[in-house]
């Protein structure tokens, strides 16, 4: 049962209780009406519509515009009927309208169905109808009428706001349950694979390195497959979710290999999909630079860090390093790997890139992207 269901049930209970209250007032005052029979007719219409509305609103598939508009129209019509049924002097004296608080049920259903904005619209319609009663009776609105208008508006806005909060909370709870289930499944899968396939691949890698020759190549391939399989386990269910976010940790871990070590936080690092993909592309460009300029056997380390101000990704290698003016020279010669593929992407995200390199001691590229970038 969703959080919204109790709100619809509460509105139905209010409608029935308000009908009972209106029946008591009509019974007590019908002798003073200008058209007593009209009072009973309006009460009968209210009773019939209450039964129809309680039944119709019980099914979420029927809570569309036709039912909502009909509900509000019946409420406004019963309210306006007061000007014909009751005596003008009684209306001017502040006597209660025929439906009294029963008309607020329509405002509540509008608020529950669409939030505070829709609740305010319904309250406005009922308020205009209430003022119309005095207009038709030729009298000025009384203080009780104005008080009723204020209360109807407050009910529509507050109930509507609470209903939207309940729906949003239900969606977040469902997402949390989904993520928890996915995490448990991923952990179960990881345990089973770790106890079998990963251990075999690790054994092949270790023995291949010991034997050398063709076995060494087999060991290297086994090691790469082990890294790829670990990345697959980490990304089980896909990096992107229904909220339009992607886990940067999963995206980067997928690129770990025998020569690339990826270190990430223990918890997820959710970012807007575009931001996460651009950061991933910049990291891949940095790793491509390592392969092209440092050789296939060069090692690289990718470190992902997160804090309240944003995320930082650094890519470090054990290559020969470079001189301080090498990047400037490369950009002047039209080689824009770092300038465009890395700096350009991060700059477009509002971030910054710093490159630290010492000849003979490798190179480190640090990419910093502030929080809230979408």
Task: Describe the fold and architecture.
With 374 residues, the chain is an alpha+beta fold. It has helices spanning 4-29, 36-57, 65-80, 82-85, 88-92, 104-114, 116-137, 143-211, 214-234, 248-253, 273-294, 326-332, 337-348; strands at residues 245-247, 260-263, 270-272, 300-307, 310-317, 352-357, 363-370. The strands form two sheets. It has a five-stranded mixed beta sheet. The protein has a two-stranded antiparallel ribbon with strand order 1-3. Strand 6 and strand 7 form a beta hairpin. Residues 332-337 have low confidence and may be disordered.
Instruction: Enumerate the strands of the largest sheet in spatial order, edge to edge or round the barrel.
Output: 2-4-5-7-6
Q: Write the element-wise H/E pattern from the N-terminal end onward.
A: HHHHHHHHHEHEEHEEHHEE
Strand count, sense and barrel status of the largest sheet are:
5 strands, mixed
Can you count the helices? 13
Strand content: 5-15%
Number of domains: 2
The residue ranges in which pLDDT falls below 50 over 5 or more consecutive positions are 332-337
- The count of β-strands is 7
Compute the separation of the termini in Å.
34 Å
Principal-axes shape call: elongated
Helix content: 55-70%
Structure class: alpha+beta
Determine the mean pLDDT. Answer: 85
The radius of gyration computed from the alpha-carbon positions, rounded to a whole number of angstroms, is 35 Å
